[in-house]
TrEMBL record:
Pfam family, one: BSD
Superkingdom of the source species: Eukaryota
Residue stretches making up the BSD domain: 63-115
Organism, scientific name: Frieseomelitta varia
Identification of the protein by name: BSD domain-containing protein
PROSITE patterns, sorted: BSD (PS50858)
GO cellular component terms listed in the entry, alphabetical order: Golgi apparatus; nucleus; synapse
Record InterPro entries: BSD_dom (IPR005607), BSD_dom_sf (IPR035925), BSD_domain-containing (IPR051494)
GO biological process: regulation of short-term neuronal synaptic plasticity; TORC2 signaling
């Protein structure tokens, strides 16, 4: 899945960053360390610890959430040290209500969803900035007739200028999204269990306007789609 490969690449970079921080400090770090909008993500992660449902409800069965209980133990201990509410919740639930492993699996699943949402939104914001820059250039180069004479066509001179402009590659036929691409995006979102309010606009922005070289680097073909073409 395209979206899954993108998120997987982001997760690898995040894990590498966390590992480097751990090596520098000689200890594990909390899951929000090094993430986009770290302060905001930290507050959101801390808020998870005040609601038992975040620990009692397992991830959806269709979600592909990789889990290694032993591997997360150092991070779990580091998080406990920074979150008194998490420590209190663990005291209340483990082992009287749920096991230690289930407690941490449910918690880190929700942390993962929050972190991935921030990463995708960060990409979307960067993409929107790229779109604005490209749009300013194209607006100066492309002129479309208006009023009764409007037929949606460009002059030959402007058409050639547009074809030669850097932004033209974003709308080439070879890069337009196919039904298969859209289905892969839908399935990828379902498997991740992610449907935040900004998910739709984030996907569209990333697919349409992020630098093509980045997608090639990640092994993801650049595509173009509209928000109306994606239905969750």
């Amino acid at each position: 899945m395209q979206l899954q490969r993108l998120v997987a690449e982001l997760n690898k970079e995040q894990e590498a960053f966390i590992a480097s921080k751990s090596a520098e400090k000689g200890e594990a770090v909390a899951p929000w360390v090094g993430a986009p909008n770290e302060d905001v993500l930290r507050e959101e992660c801390l808020s998870l610890s005040i609601d038992q449902r975040n620990f009692l409800k397992s991830p959806p069965k269709e979600v592909d959430f990789p889990w290694n209980f032993e591997a997360v133990q150092p991070m779990a201990q580091a998080t406990l040290a920074l979150d008194p509410n998490l420590e209190n919740m663990r005291f209340q639930l483990v082992p009287k209500v749920i096991s230690e492993e289930i407690f941490w699996r449910n918690y880190f699943y929700r942390v993962s969803v929050l972190r991935q949402s921030h990463e995708l939104n960060t990409l979307a914001n960067q993409a929107e900035n790229n779109q604005s820059s490209a749009g300013s250039v194209e607006q100066a180069e492309v002129q479309v007739t208006t009023g009764q004479e409007s037929n949606g066509t460009m002059t030959a001179e402007n058409s050639n200028t547009f074809a030669d402009s850097p932004g033209h590659e974003f709308v080439s036929d070879s890069m337009r999204v196919t039904d298969t691409d859209l289905q892969e995006v839908r399935e990828g979102m379902k498997k991740l269990g992610m449907q935040p309010p900004k998910a739709r606009s984030s996907i569209v922005s990333v697919l349409n306007y992020y630098e093509p070289t980045t997608f090639v680097k990640l092994g993801i073909p650049a595509v173009v789609c509209s928000e109306s073409s994606i239905s969750m």
